Every structure is written in C-alpha cells, then in structure tokens.
Amino acid sequence: MRHLRFLRYMDEVARTGSIRGAAERLNVTPSALNRRIMDLEEELGAKLLERRPRGVRLTGAGEVFVRYVREQLGDVDRMLSQLEDLRGLKRGLVKIACSQALAHDFLPQQIASFRARYPLVSFDVTVADHERGIALLATYDVDLILVFRPPFIASLRPLMTLPQRLVALLPAGHPLTARESVRLADFTTYPIALPERSTGGRQMIEEALSRAGLRFSVATQANSFELLRSLVAYAGMISFQIQIGALPEAMPAGIEIRPIDPRDLPAADLVLGQLRGRNLPLAAAQFAEHLGAALKTA
Known about the structure:
The chain is α/β, with parallel strands linked by helices. 43% of the residues lie in helices and 23% in strands. The chain has three domains: 2-68, Arc Repressor Mutant, subunit A (Orthogonal Bundle), CATH 1.10.10; 90-162 and 269-296, D-Maltodextrin-Binding Protein, domain 2 (3-Layer(aba) Sandwich), CATH 3.40.190.10; 166-266, D-Maltodextrin-Binding Protein, domain 2, CATH 3.40.190.290.
C-alpha cells in the first residue's frame, strides 16, 4: 500500500501549509517531496498548490484532491480496523473531540467501561470548544464529536442529541442554596467565574444577559472547567455548567448545584456526531453506539 504513503504526504502538506515543514515531520527531504507533488500535478493536469515565499496554499483543485485524500485515508483506517476485528484482536483507535464539560467525568467513565470490553482499543481525545470540534471533524482529525451547541454545518450527521440545561455551581452555605432554583438576576451582586467566550455555555449566558439587560461581576475568566470548579469551592465564586458536566456525585466537597430557571436559560443540545457520508472505523462506530446508549440514561 505504498500509494497511501504519498496520500499521507499530501495531507501533511495541506495541514502544515509548508513543504519544508511537512518534510521535517515526515522525515523526507523537501526537494523529494516537492518533486513528488510536481509529478502529481503533471499527472492530474492541475496545480494543487500555490507556492509562496513563506509556504504554500491549496488551490481549488488542491482542496478537491485533499478532500479525496482524507476520504481515502478514512476508508483505509476503517478497513484496517475490520481486518483486526476478523483476527479477533478488537484493536482500533477512536479519535474524538469533546467539550470540556464531558472531559472531567462523563467521557473518562465511558472510555473506562468501553475498554473493559475492548482493552486493545486506544483513544485520541481532543478537548475543544464547539466550533473547533466541528473544524476537527471536517478535516478528518477526529472520527466523532461530543459537543454542546455545535454550529450548524450541512456535513455534520448528528447520531444523538441530548437537551441540556445550565446549572449554577454555588459554594456550600451560599445564601442562594436556600432556593430550589435561581434566576440570572440573583447572581448580579456576587463574584462570578466564567469559562472563556468560545464555549457554548458562556455564549448562552451572554445572550441571556443581553436580552434581560443584566450584567455580571466577572471575577475570573478561565479556559479550564476544573479551575472554575475550584474557584467555587475555595474562592466563594459562582460558576455554571451543563447538567452532564455537573453530576452531584462527581462534584468536589464544598459545591452545591441549583438549576437555573428555564425562563432565563432554555435547554440546548449536546450533540454526538460524525461527518456525513463517512464510513467510521469499526472501533469508532462501536464507541459511538456505546456513547449513545450511555447518553440515553444520563
């Protein structure tokens, strides 16, 4: 399958935007790699790369060819996975992008239970916001996404959606813990810890605050949900999370959870999805089924 080697070469050039950079990663000489690409361009009768003083960029024909390359490499991964399955090894690699809310408890639990059945399956997990997760899916960097409020793209095939509400994480003993549910206006006089603006939950909150004409006193903004939890427990701040990322049994000591009134923040979808029209590698397809079953009971 030597032709696959060059397909991977072309994919790497597209990802790095540099023949020299791709050659270094692939352990070949830049001149040899460039010669192979020029031979391919001559064979296809079309320029694939626009060569610039500082790197290269795909032409229209190059974008079509790289899309074909990634489809072929995805099919090869699935075929190799099926061959392994026929040998009874149950090997495979699952590449998945997930929102931070899933990274602390839910996804590790599901990986553990899946590997209890298929111990030779390995995982490549990327924790990413919803927009980057979609981008990784579109470029075949991941097989699956499990993200909150992904942007709509025609090439996304949702395998399952699970409505999720935002909940408030409150320090134990906070005055608001005396209530069964809370309103956004209740938080305006307290220090707030929010995730960065690229996250779906933060965007929901800001949209709701804008509609209501409210403003939070943001004491900390962070790109780590684990840090946000700790700020609630140790610094007395208030933060927010989707339900599946705030399971009471998984919360550290010092944190209490209260639902936010749906008049302020309606539910939005957590989406398990794949690229439309793509045949998933066997391990990824099986893990998608496993996740779907777990989400139904979440």
